[in-house]
Design brief:
Helix content: 10-25%
Strand order of the largest sheet: 1-2-5-4-3-6
Number of helices: 5
Distance between the termini: 31 Å
CATH topology of the largest domain: Elongation Factor Tu (Ef-tu), domain 3
Strand content: 35-45%
Shape: globular
Number of strands: 12
Oligomer: single chain
Order of helices and strands: EEEEEHEEEHEEEHEHH
Radius of gyration: 18 Å
């Protein structure tokens, strides 16, 4: 589990169709640890000084942008959330839902406005002012568009993540808010109309 608060920008040293090796300044990564790489939860399989390796499956390769990375590409890194840590962003699982494409980046006074294009199956879980993870970055949706969504990013976040390197037409990993998925599952199970008894049974009212 992660928070979406990026801790380091790593550099790809080697990459294949199933393994990635990344250089990082983070100094307490251990074998078997979970780490978010551009929002993708991976498991460290080996570490040598400041370079760690992680394997990923064909399914992960298919639904994320990992296969588009190259040697010397930069990536957002975040270590797994410790139980003693504050949840400064939002709950991020590291299980990417799909890919969005940057349509436009506007530099405005005091912040950046970024428009993303995405498929309907991602947009279905997006709401105004809701949380979303873009390449592992915890962000808030400013508005929903017919074809995607719009986000405003402060300079602190923009300058300390790989968003500073992005341009129009670049693709990013997207993870929608897990709460939306739970709500969908819950409502699908409730085949009858919502009633006071149903709300009470599920703890919404006393």
């Amino acid at each position: 589990m992660f928070t979406g608060l990026i801790e380091d920008i790593g550099v790809i040293k080697n990459i294949s169709s199933s393994r990635i090796e990344i250089e990082t300044t983070l100094n307490d990564i251990s074998k078997g640890a979970s780490i978010s790489v551009n929002g993708v939860c991976l498991t460290v399989v080996s570490i040598n000084k400041n370079i760690f390796a992680a394997d990923y499956s064909p399914h992960t390769d298919k639904i994320t942008t990992l296969s588009k990375l190259k040697k010397d590409s930069k990536v957002n890194l975040e270590r797994a959330l410790a139980l003693s840590s504050r949840l400064g962003g939002h709950i991020v699982s590291g299980h990417v839902d799909g890919i969005a494409k940057i349509e436009k980046i506007e530099v405005l006074k005091g912040f950046y406005k970024v428009k993303f294009l995405c498929e309907k199956d991602i947009l279905n879980y997006c709401v105004n002012k809701g949380s979303i993870a873009v390449d592992g970055i915890s962000l808030t949706i400013a508005s929903i568009l017919d074809y995607g969504f719009e986000i405003f990013i402060i300079p602190e976040t923009f300058g300390n993540t790989i968003m500073q390197l992005k341009k129009a037409r670049d693709e990013v990993n997207i993870e929608t808010d897990v709460l939306a998925k739970y709500v969908e599952t819950f409502t699908k199970k409730e085949t009858t109309n919502i009633s006071f008894e149903m709300l009470k049974r599920n703890g919404f009212v006393e």
